[in-house]
């Protein structure tokens, strides 16, 4: 650290910082550095980084590397956030236009020896960043019980993963993008990052984040001749959307600030991105990679708008006043799921329905617009697919009834466990023949028993000799040891042939349970949307009642009650706090029921 002090030569400080960043690639070293509170001390030594382009590069590199290993916002103080904001502000001149003609490296402003030293430092920083893992496209991991749609999606993602390794390498990122990734990691842990979100708004960091997203959205237009460049822009836009999602999650101050930022320009650009992504997905003219990235960006935009409108009347009004926004969101419910496969279809439905709920909950103009909006849906008959035009509320009602019926009629075949020796090798979830697996279980238990014998003071009952001078208490202890050994022998026999599930039966049950859960949640969201509309319109409430099963609200009330119970068990404290409005809606429906 002495070589990083301001009085040392600039080249020595830069090289020392990069060497430290290289050491921080090791998770254990990085944790030790944070545990001893050295991160703040290091950044104090680099407080003059904004004055030197080379020092800006190495500081951003060090920050990026240290943030890769679960860096927590509690490890930093306000001065560190100010330094990060300064780096973002200094490098923000390069991001207002992502065309190649406008991009200008800071090193081009240097001359002679300073320029050569800058290029050396820049290359060394890239060599450190090349050792970092590529930035992930999808945060969500898959579980078990995979369907055919999942397998089809995997085939499409193979090409994307190859591009991931080439296009998302940290070494390809600019200083502003490296700093944005640092803020993304610092705000990902929602439990204790509230203060850093506030500082980002106070220091003006949100302005730079919003400008990056706006500049990227301005540069994205479909052109066959520029396919590679646009893919890279979509990747950067995806990372920018993830940061916007983090800083607006359950933060009213940031919601309001970004809602009115530059005359709601950010909201306008995000809404246009929805239509742009939908066009690519529906026509599928850009190939698997471009389709995949467009889908991820569409989901990212929906998540950001969901945060903007969450319990936020101004955000709901500003989003709802955008041109054709309700039609675009309704297309996400009724058209886009037909163009995608796998788990993303469920994500698309839930995010779109959730955004519609937020838009109509606090905005009368949005409710009135939804009452009068029509959508085009397709129905498959024996002669083929037939397009049909109907009102949006009727389409949502049909969506609710279809998923409600499927959830009610769903049957989950619970697998019956069998003894391991009775299963064939192909039907067993474990590898090998039953005989081999019995030996594995026996060996495991034997090693476990041996570990007990290795404990100091332990004596095997079988080898215990009783001397003439042995007391009666010792004889009783010996009997206890013999009984314990007999019990362990019985346990050995049982453990060698345990009860297990057949892999095929287990996967089938898991898939059925997953589909039932999806149907239940989709029916809950669509029921909540209908209930919100019914709460604010007695006329629509009467029409809805006539269309529901048994001409009453029992189905919607039961679905919402189950949803509240589910969220109480599975949701966090912040999620449970938002259920109070749903309880009020249920009570309102119960009064209408009476």
Question: What distinguishing features does this structure have?
Answer:
594 residues; mainly alpha; two-stranded antiparallel sheet; two-stranded antiparallel ribbon; 26 helices; 66% helix; elongated
Q: What this model shows, in words?
A:
With 594 residues, the chain is mainly α. Helix content is 66%, strand content 3%. It has 26 helices and four strands. The strands form two sheets. A two-stranded antiparallel ribbon has the order 1-2. Strands 3-4 form a two-stranded antiparallel ribbon. β1 (374-381) and β2 (384-391) form a beta hairpin. α5 crosses α9. The protein is elongated and about 80 Å long.
Q: Which structural class should the secondary elements be placed in?
A: mainly alpha
Question: Can you give the helix content as a percent range?
Answer: 55-70%
Strand arrangement across the biggest beta sheet:
1-2
Per DSSP, the total helix count is 26
Q: Count of DSSP E strands?
A: 4
Task: List the helices and strands in order.
Answer: HHHHHHHHHHHHHHHHHHEEHEHHEHHHHH
**N-C termini distance:** 74 Å
Flag low-confidence runs.
93-104, 140-162, 426-472, 493-497
User: What global shape is seen?
Assistant: elongated
Proportion of residues in extended strands: under 5%
Q: What does the largest sheet look like?
A: 2 strands, antiparallel
Mean pLDDT: 76
Radius of gyration from CA coordinates: 30 Å
Q: In terms of topology, how is this protein built?
A:
Layout: H1 10-23, H2 27-35, H3 38-45, H4 53-67, H5 78-90, H6 112-129, H7 148-167, H8 175-186, H9 194-203, H10 205-219, H11 227-248, H12 252-259, H13 265-283, H14 287-309, H15 313-320, H16 325-334, H17 343-361, H18 364-372, E1 374-381, E2 384-391, H19 392-409, E3 418-419, H20 434-453, H21 472-496, E4 499-500, H22 503-535, H23 538-547, H24 554-570, H25 573-577, H26 580-593
Antiparallel strand pairs: 1-2, 3-4
């Amino acid at each position: 650290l002495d070589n990083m002090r301001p009085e040392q030569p600039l080249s020595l400080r830069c090289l020392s910082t990069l060497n430290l960043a290289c050491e921080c690639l090791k998770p254990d070293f990085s944790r030790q550095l944070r545990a001893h509170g050295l991160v703040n001390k290091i950044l104090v030594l680099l407080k003059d980084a904004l004055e030197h382009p080379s020092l800006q590069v190495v500081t951003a590199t060090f920050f990026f590397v240290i943030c890769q290993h679960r860096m927590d916002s509690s490890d930093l103080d306000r001065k560190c956030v100010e330094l990060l904001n300064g780096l973002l502000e200094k490098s923000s001149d390069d991001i207002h236009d992502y065309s190649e003609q406008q991009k200008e490296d800071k090193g081009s402003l240097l001359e002679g020896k300073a320029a050569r030293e800058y290029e050396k430092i820049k290359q060394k920083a890239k060599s450190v960043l090349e050792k970092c893992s590529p930035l992930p496209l999808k945060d969500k991991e898959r579980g078990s019980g995979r369907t055919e749609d999942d397998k089809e999606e995997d085939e499409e993602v193979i090409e994307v993963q190859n591009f991931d390794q080439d296009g998302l390498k940290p070494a390809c990122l600019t200083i502003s993008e490296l700093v944005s990734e640092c803020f993304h990691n610092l705000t990902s842990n929602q439990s204790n990052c509230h203060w850093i979100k506030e500082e980002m708004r106070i220091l003006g960091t949100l302005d730079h984040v919003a400008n990056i997203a706006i500049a990227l959205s301005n540069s994205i237009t479909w052109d066959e001749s520029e396919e590679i460049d646009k893919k890279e822009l979509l990747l950067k836009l995806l990372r920018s959307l993830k940061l916007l999602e983090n800083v607006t999650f359950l933060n009213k101050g940031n919601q309001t600030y970004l809602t009115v930022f530059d005359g709601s320009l950010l909201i306008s650009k995000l809404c246009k991105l929805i239509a742009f992504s939908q066009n690519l997905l529906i026509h599928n003219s850009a190939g698997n990679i471009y389709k995949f990235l467009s889908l991820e960006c569409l989901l990212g935009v929906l998540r950001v708008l969901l945060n903007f409108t969450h319990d936020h009347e101004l955000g709901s009004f500003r989003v709802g006043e955008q041109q054709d926004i309700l039609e675009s969101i309704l297309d996400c419910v009724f058209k886009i799921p037909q163009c995608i496969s796998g788990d993303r279809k469920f994500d698309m439905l839930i995010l779109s329905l959730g955004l519609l709920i937020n838009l109509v909950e606090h905005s009368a103009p949005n409710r009135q617009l939804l009452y009068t909006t029509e959508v085009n849906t397709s129905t498959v008959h024996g002669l083929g697919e037939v397009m049909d035009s109907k009102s949006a509320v009727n389409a949502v009602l049909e969506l609710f009834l279809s998923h409600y019926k499927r959830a009610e009629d769903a049957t989950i075949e619970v697998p019956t466990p069998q003894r391991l020796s009775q299963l064939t090798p192909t039907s067993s979830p474990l590898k090998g023949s039953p005989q081999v697996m019995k030996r594995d279980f026996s060996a495991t238990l034997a090693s476990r028993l041996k570990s007990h014998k290795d404990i100091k003071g332990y004596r095997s009952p079988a080898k215990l000799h009783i001397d003439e001078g042995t007391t009666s208490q010792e004889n009783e202890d010996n009997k206890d040891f013999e009984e314990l050994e007999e019990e362990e022998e019985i346990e050995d026999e049982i453990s060698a042939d345990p009860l297990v599930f057949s892999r095929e039966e287990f996967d089938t049950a898991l898939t059925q349970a997953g589909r039932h859960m999806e149907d239940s949640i989709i029916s809950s969201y669509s029921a909540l949307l209908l209930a919100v509309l019914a709460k604010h319109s007695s006329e629509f409430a009467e029409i809805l009642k006539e269309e529901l099963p048994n001409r009453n609200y029992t189905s919607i009330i039961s679905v919402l009650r189950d949803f509240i119970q589910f969220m109480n068990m599975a949701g966090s404290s912040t999620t449970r706090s938002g259920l109070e409005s749903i309880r009020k809606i249920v009570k309102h429906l119960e009064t209408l029921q009476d």
